[in-house]
Fold this protein.
Amino acid sequence: MRAVIRPHRVSGVFRLPASKSHTIRRLLLAALGEGVSEIAYPLDSLDARSCVAVCRALGAEIIEERSAGGLCANPPDGEGKKLLRWTVRGIGAGDGGLSFPSSPVMCDVGNSGTTLFLALAAAALGTAPVTFTGDAQIARRGAGPLLDALAALGVRTASEKGCTPITVEGPWKGGRVSLPCPTSQYLSALLLAAPLAPAGTLTEIDVPLLNEKPYIELTLSYLDAQNVPYETGGDFSFFRVPGGGRYRPLHGPVPGDFSSAAFPAAAAAVTGGPVSLLGLNPEDPQGDKVFFDVLSRMGCEVAWTKEPQNSAWHLTVSRTGALRGGEFDLNATPDLLPALAVTASYAEGPTALVNVAHARIKETDRIAVMARELGRLGVLCEERPDGLVVHGTGGSLKGGAVDGRGDHRVVMALAVAALGAAGPVEIAGAESAAVTYPGFLEIVDGDII
């Protein structure tokens, strides 16, 4: 699918979709937990749907409720109804055990790397083989360090060079492992699964490398809410997790997504806005909220306000002066690279996005792809092994044709880049935006061709 974005100012009030990181973690905890959980206002996207399918394959019962209207940010189906909640009956057996399927299971994670890595460890708690497949991008995303750690914990693993198709088969026997984490999802996977290992099991994890630390803080916030015991050093270089735990039912709405919020916020930075975003909470542990501090440093006006009648937060972004370049360390927040690269394209002077080599192992090599596609719009970009230097134009970009390379964040970033261009921009692979932000192309008035 191709989308054409024409230059124009973006302003208005937008309710954000729910966080993908929160949605997938809640689905997996509910699926592995005891009793019935209700997940209200979850993200209804391709990645979330992949996680639902995996949880069902592992034995959880999931019922969805839809309704027309309301404040939900999810896209309507063919009948105009939006997903309001999932009711999940987990496979927790009530005695600390788990009722996994007793025969081999096939799980297709689609394009969802988060689902793949987190569910790999969860499936290793069972004693039947579980095989994971996915799309062409997933087939290039290696899980080697995670599989090595699982094997050291007693789990049988089989894969082709650490990529899908991957088969895991428990039992989880525990032990001490070393787990380098170019992606934090490897560590989150072990931390979510290890508490459910058999009673008497102890899982100890040395972490010689950890990128994306805020996502570990997010994972630990769920363990804390479940009163799950664990020990760790302050720098997250070591964890000790006893088995024999259980997850209780969880309830409530899923927080809005700061990662998705970066794109309408970047649209305000590029075109002036103002854009007001609903559904976010400044106290949420999502690391990508730092994007708004970066926008402020680059010259945008950023303000949090709370409605007195219902205490709901509004986050408003606008710009009246020039955008300024700078240097920003994205080690903790690599998903911000596409949106920030586009914002930097309109800044005065160079912007260095540094310490983010792991952006090369996402859905695409985002450093190389953003340099190539922004170059087609007239922006000079210098690739570095661990980052990108964007030489801002201080004004408009060229129109033309670009390719989102099947990467949802690249597609949305290029759509934002088009808003201040001198002419229309045609984006190939635009359907990928629906992986995490269904409806984003409507926000930027994209014409589908």
Q: What stands out?
A: The domain at 2-14+256-448 is CATH 3.65.10.10 (UDP-n-acetylglucosamine1-carboxyvinyl-transferase; Chain).
